[in-house]
Task: inverse folding
């Protein structure tokens, strides 16, 4: 009986110790949990404080830079205004002139452009056709470069060149005239055979607002066929004029393909 009581007492003591250990472990666990949460709160507080400090510092720095920038700009504006009021500038060199900014004789330029349009599209030019056909016939007989060079000194070729110059050279600068003969080309609508008439009308010319040397224009050409039918064709183009009112560059846009229509009618 005593032995049994001893064993029970020993077991009771072990159970009590186990209970105490469990209670201690729970308390220790709770304490550790509290310490961890406390440390996290402290760390988060430090982080919030540090971020807030950085934001405040950045805001203060931006304010300082903004004030400094305003003062700097104000000082520069004041200096520029002072320079303008006294007629002095930082740069003593003259500013380069803008392209097309020089004055041109607008009315003279418009008259010149209209004269060329009327000369080119009122036709055909029968005299041009005569001298051109004679020059082309002579050119066909020139089979070598030496013969062609010699042809240019003959009266037939000189009549051809002189007639073109008498018709158009006065309206153009030297380079402008050469470009008009070769690039446009001149007398383009007078080289057809057959019976036809061309009449230019509704010519409208305006000066470009941004470039006073440039002029845009539109006009109509009435094409009368051999059978008496008349059809209108729209054209537009632009010209560059010198300050004296002569043409430096001229180009036409055959919007309704009059040239193609004439070519099909003749051939």
Result:
């Amino acid at each position: 009986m005593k032995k049994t009581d001893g064993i029970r007492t020993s077991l009771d003591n072990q159970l009590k110790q186990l209970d105490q250990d469990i209670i201690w472990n729970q308390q220790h666990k709770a304490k550790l949990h509290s310490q961890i949460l406390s440390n996290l709160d402290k760390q988060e507080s430090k982080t919030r404080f540090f971020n807030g400090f950085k934001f405040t510092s950045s805001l203060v720095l931006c304010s300082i830079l903004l004030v400094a920038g305003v003062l700097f700009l104000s000082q520069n504006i004041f200096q520029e205004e002072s320079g303008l009021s006294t007629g002095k500038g930082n740069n003593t060199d003259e500013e380069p002139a803008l392209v097309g900014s020089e004055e041109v004789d607008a009315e003279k330029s418009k008259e010149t452009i209209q004269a060329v349009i009327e000369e080119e599209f009122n036709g055909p030019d029968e005299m041009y056709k005569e001298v051109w056909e004679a020059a082309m016939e002579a050119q066909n007989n020139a089979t070598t470069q030496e013969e062609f060079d010699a042809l240019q000194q003959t009266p037939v070729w000189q009549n051809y060149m002189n007639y073109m110059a008498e018709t158009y050279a006065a309206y153009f600068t030297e380079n402008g005239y050469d470009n008009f003969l070769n690039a446009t080309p001149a007398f383009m609508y007078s080289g057809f055979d057959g019976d036809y008439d061309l009449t230019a009308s509704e010519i409208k010319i305006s000066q470009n607002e941004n470039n006073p040397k440039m002029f845009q224009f539109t006009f109509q050409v009435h094409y009368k066929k051999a059978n008496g039918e008349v059809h209108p064709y729209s054209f537009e183009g632009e010209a560059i004029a010198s300050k004296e009112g002569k043409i430096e560059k001229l180009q036409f846009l055959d919007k309704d393909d009059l040239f193609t229509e004439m070519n099909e009618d003749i051939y």
In short: The chain has a mean pLDDT of 77. The chain has two domains: 1-86, 106-125+172-266. The first strand starts at residue 197 and ends at 207. The chain has seven helices and four strands.
